[in-house]
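Record type: monomer structure entry
Structure origin: computed from sequence
Chain ID: A
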Amino acid sequence: MNRRLLLATALLPMAAQAHGSATQHGSLTLEAPWTRAAGQGGQGAGFLTIRNTGAADRLLSASTPAAGRTELHTMLRDGDIMRMRQVEAIAVPANGAVSLAPGGLHIMLLGLTRPLVVGESVPLTLVFEQAGAVTLQLAVQAAGARMPMH
């Protein structure tokens, strides 16, 4: 039994890596941060899942040296058309999670200062109302990706 426990403990980091990176920051766990490949001067979007084991919090802003500016966005249906809208903050529920994903909540990267190249990563700093600032790396996926690939 001890051998199985040792083996399982040794394999945990590999399993976590296979399912994407995670950054722990207080009661928040920021999982599988990623973006899509895009050209310099264009726009991109950041995606991740934020899990919270503590009190409710709010994502207030994001920044990256890879973009002239960033905005928090959501997607809303307007008749038969989906439209992006900037939001002031993104709620992170107490003892819950929020997913930033294509077609929903996301972080817009506007005026890219450099190309986002598949296989590279982009630093992104998130600022939370309660938890403060945390910097993580967005893994750059293929231009048409719908989810992170590992």
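Annotation 1: The longest strand covers residues 67-78.
Annotation 2: The mean pLDDT is 85.
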